[in-house]
Amino acid sequence: MTNSLYTPSPSTSASLQPINNPPFHTQPHHRSIAMAATGEPQPAKHQEVGHKSLLQSDALYQYILETSVYPREPESMKELREVTAKHPWNLMTTSADEGQFLNLLLKLINAKNTMEIGVYTGYSLLSTALALPEDGKILALDINRENYEIGLPIIEKAGVAHKIDFREGPALPLLDQMVDDVKFHGSFDFIFVDADKDNYLNYHKRLIDLVKIGGVIGYDNTLWNGSLVAPADAPLRKYVRYYRDFVLELNKTLAVDPRVEICQLPVGDGITLCRRIS
Ligand SMILES: C[S@@+](CC[C@H](N)C(=O)[O-])C[C@H]1O[C@@H](n2cnc3c(N)ncnc32)[C@H](O)[C@@H]1O
């Protein structure tokens, strides 16, 4: 994800609701980091919907988008990005540069059978569906079908809806069912996790059995708006502060997990790729 714009609920993560607070990187603390880095005040930052870049220069991020991403973005993804931009929770969407990254990665690893946890309106889902071969499959899980249906007509028009098996509901119980059935073990080439951060470690425990050896799990938002290294008194939004500890714990765990090779990339809000090796 994108910035998971959820407000934590004391009960279950399935009841987390997206909120419209600006992400951490639009707040004064983050701006002051940008000024310190360049010595100059930056121009208005983070205008792009779905802006997830941790780059200190907004102009440089804009340069990437305008030079390498937007000119090559498939028409359907552009349409979905523009439709999503009008949605009140639009900050949850995967950014265009990350969508491009996922699309290329899936082609590089010849992915065919994939899973996505956290769909929202489907930008990363569409980028995945476009990358897979005609008989490729995506098991797409989200607690909210309504948002998926915003993007669905565009996905259908792009001719890739037949690759998607959307299931509405919390991901964890379904993953448990799959783990109980050996036929799913080692069956996924790629799994993208972009949902409730407080469950990432629970997901990891299960996904490690479901991804094949040599397959890849991508965990999104592992740099959590840069908040992981924010000073204790930084004015963090409540949801950022709440999820920060879960992201820190995830990163610590992945760093020492001998079953995977990892690479944490500062694309979007940070994505950690885990290649299963045992
Ligand atoms: C950041 S958004 C996903 C963004 C999406 N990847 C995209 O490209 O736009 C996170 C999504 O996770 C979903 N979600 C939250 N908790 C969940 C859970 N327990 N199981 C499945 N989905 C969940 C939310 O409904 C939301 O749509």
Structural class: alpha/beta
The total tally of domains equals: 1
The best one-word shape is: globular
Small molecules bound: S-adenosylmethionine
Task: Provide the residue-averaged pLDDT.
Answer: 86
CATH superfamily: Vaccinia Virus protein VP39
The total count of strands amounts to 9
As a percent range, the share of strand residues is 15-25%
CATH fold field value: Rossmann fold
Structural Rg: 18 Å
Q: From the coordinates shown, what is the CATH architecture?
A: 3-Layer(aba) Sandwich
Largest beta-sheet characterization: 7 strands, mixed
Distance between the termini: 27 Å
* Secondary-structure element string: EEHHHHEHEHEHEHEHEE
* Strand arrangement in the largest pleated sheet: 5-4-3-6-7-9-8
Q: Give unreliable regions as ranges.
A: 1-45
- Count of helical segments? 9
Quaternary state reads single chain
How does this model look, in words?
38% of the residues lie in helices and 17% in strands. It is α/β, with parallel strands linked by helices and 278 residues long. It has a single domain, classed as Vaccinia Virus protein VP39 (Rossmann fold). The strands form two sheets. It has a seven-stranded mixed β-sheet, with helices on both faces. Bound molecules: S-adenosylmethionine.
